[in-house]
Amino acid sequence: MKKLLTLVLCLLFVLCGCSSASNEAKEETAEETKTETKKIAIAYQYGLAYAPVIIVKEKGLMEEAYKNLTGNELQVEWVQMSSGADINNGIASGEIDAGFMGIGPAMTGISKGLNYKVFTNISGQEHGMMSNDAAIASLGDLVGTENQIALVNIGSIQHIILAKALAENGYDAHALDANIVAMKHPDGMASLESGAVKCHLTSSPYIFYEHDNANLYEIKEVHEAWGQDKSFIVGIASTELNSDAELYQALCDSFVAAIDLINNNVNEAAALTCDFNGNTAEVEADYLQRGVYSTETNGLFEMLQFMQDNDFCDKNITSYSELVFDNVKGN
Questions:
Q1: What CATH number is given to the structural domain containing 190?
Q2: Distances (CA, A) of 179 to 48, 153, 176, 272, 301
Q3: 237, 275: one domain
């Protein structure tokens, strides 16, 4: 009887030990899952229009927002690209989760069925087209010539603004498509100043630099076609990212904070962004105040309709709500 009792006690001890080990293993696995670092890849481009992106990046606002929401770490990979078309390719391939681009390529991507929508507006900026030839005073002086126009890319927001300016002044929206040479903003400005191209269509801060050059002349119809009160750069997020409620909320919250900083403490914002744009903090603060930074869109659907009417994108989008996630306000 004693032997049987001893055997039962030993068996219970072993079972309890196994159960305890199993529970410990489960707790360790749960803890590992809880503290696993999530990753996100975000693409952005060049220029003052991207100031909120630089602030989020430099201050770690998205990582902070995610930690506050979940208690967990977030690893953000920031990828600088040359155009919205590159970002669209990154989204399509799954290499990019969110990005910032002009509304032209954003509308193109959505109409093509890429799995993203706008999650925020970030800025409206001054646009302009400058020439190094005093004889080129208007768009009419370019139509029918071989004079080259540097801008970011075919299908970029700069291209669409050029097309809109043409249409508003009685020309075919595509009348200057063959004159376009694709260049990043800094390269386009350098090519204009060297005489390698006749014109450069750009946005802030490059248009400010070019305004200060006494050897350059502005073609004013471009500026008049789309003012800085209109949406220029928007943030887009994949539908998969949007389905992750906490990660998506952290993304949105971080850009609300960055835009609030620009609007309420421009000097602090300028100190964070000036190196990115190659300005002193004082000059950067002045430039930031010339832009419009807001999470609300203005003119998004208007631009889409222009693009649809002039064969820049498919005509399969019929409402503003198809362009944006539910949290976005504007038109």
A1: 3.40.190.10
A2: 26, 12, 5, 37, 28
A3: yes
